[in-house]
Each structure stands twice: as C-alpha cells, then as structure tokens.
Amino acid sequence: MPKGLSFRTQADTREPQFHSFIITREDGSRTYGFALTFFEEVTSKQICSAMQTLYHMHNAEQYDILHTPPTPRSPEDARPTAQQLHAAPSLSRLQRFNSYDISRDTLYVSKCICLITPMAFAHACRRVLEQLHQAVTSPQPPPLPLESYVYNVLYEVPLPPVGRSLKFSGVYGPVVCQRPSTAELPLFDFPLQEVFELLGVENVLQLFTCALLEIQILLYSQRE
To answer: Which Gene3D superfamilies does the record match to this protein (predicted)?
Structure first.
C-alpha cells in the first residue's frame, strides 16, 4: 500500500481505491502491478483498545503543543493575546472531533489485493480485483468457491497472443483483454480521461512538449 497501514472509523470514507505500479529491473525489463485497497472491520478487542489508547496519547500531545507558549523575546511577548486564548481548543474539544471511542465507533483497517502481470492489462486486472472484492463483501456467496476463481486467474488464463484478444470468466462477469499486434501502437490500457482530469489540459500539453524536447520529467503524486 502506498502509505502503509491505515485505520478509519464509520465516519470516514471507505470506498475501495485502485492503483497501479511498475517494477523496473536493472536490465530494463518491467513487471506491472495492480492493487485494490479496501477496508475491513477490526474484530480484535486488543487492537481496538490499543487504538483508543493511541488516540488519547495523540490528543494529549496535540493539546500540550497548542498550549505551550513560545519563548518570549520581551516582557510584552510573554502575555498571551486574546486571539491566542480564543484559538486554543480545549482537550475535550480535541477528543470530541479527533478521537476513537471503542464503545461508540467501529474500527476499520486497510487491506490490499494485488495482481502482478507481465503486461499492463490495467482494465482487465481492475475488473478481476473488483469482482473478487465484491465476492468477499457480498452477503450472497459466489457461484463457485472463491479459491477456484483465484486459481483460474493465476494458472489457467494464458497471455493473449500478439494481435489477439482474450476473454475469460470472472466471478460475476466476463473479462476481456487485448494485445496489440506489431503493426499497432504499444499497449496502453490506462484511461486518458483521468490524466486530463488530474493534471489539466495545460499541464498535459506542457508534459507533452517536454517529452518532444527530450526534457527529463518527474511526476510526484500526493494521492493515495
């Protein structure tokens, strides 16, 4: 997971998040990864109790930081202003808006399922992962045991031949992936619409200009 393990409560958003990544080896070969991060309820009472203790420690630390006056440079600076007194929140207010109560809240922990592939079949991998997650969270069991679908994807679905498409069965519907021929453009299975939505038209044009001018490009993502 990009930012490690995370916890949330029922008040936070817990929609599954899909992301992709690339593993580049020293010889230049690439392996493509696709991951779906989701949240499951924590059932261990020990973990819930430890999380509540950590929240109390965090709130107490934040309270001390907010109420520790800065080192005065003069006698006038030692006296707090009315604005500082009004802005300093109380400990009870911090605990009310930034806390976890084991008797009131439900704790969720992030988990992740991932597929590693030799080619970037992003759309197909996303459908496979989303259907597997749906099978786990659905109150109705899937038509076949869940292990059979995992085994099918790992050991029975071949790599599509060059210039051909492949269709195989997922948990709830078919999954299709296509491999371009040598006379076509290289495989690019990522939606271009998301690129323009995230970067904007001007930034995309600037990146395209830098690529044409062979300028080094470094992209840094702040999203999970």
So the answer is: 3.30.450.200, 3.40.50.11500
